[in-house]
Amino acid sequence: MDKRKIQKAVRGILEAVGEDPQRDGLRETPRRVADFYQEIFAGLSENPEAQIKLYSAPNQDEMIIAKDIFFHSLCEHHLLPFFGKAHIAYVPADNKITGFSRLVRVVEVLARRPQLQERLTAQIADVLMKVLRSKGVLVIMEAEQTCLSMRGLKKPGSVTITSAVRGTLKKDALRKEALALIKGFIPEDSTSGKLNSRKSTRVKK
Ligand SMILES: [Zn+2]
To answer: Which pTM does this prediction carry?
Structure first.
């Protein structure tokens, strides 16, 4: 990552809005932002598929749920944070499972890029489908979009929910079971099988 280029750009923005980049509080800002971007966009140079390690678990063919995976990301339209929780359900194939921390890493690597919540949700589902070779995957993400709440388009604290469903979890009965296990964050109406069509509550920008 070219941190000098980021610093130069941040100084340019400060000048453009009429600030003095040399005043006390701002002198170190370009460097701080560059350090921050290096951290927050670290996922750009990492492979999400490489985060998964498969373990053999005899007779493990029941659905596995990982709830409340906290994440932060930056919306690619405004470079402002969106943050919240991811919930993952998957049905193992051939008794192959992975650890909770591995799922957390997949979410982290994909979230530490300029993102959109819908695409992040779909990418997590696709990586898990591919690498876990699971029979089905359901990913639900609920997040506050600061670019919406700060501009008053949504009340602070209101969440956008996105979902991506793959394979056997598209079947009504299985999906309902997964949602019942994840429930608590999911609105009542999504257990009625409408989740497929209700991909996002995002407002148009
Ligand atoms: Zn945005």
So the answer is: 0.85
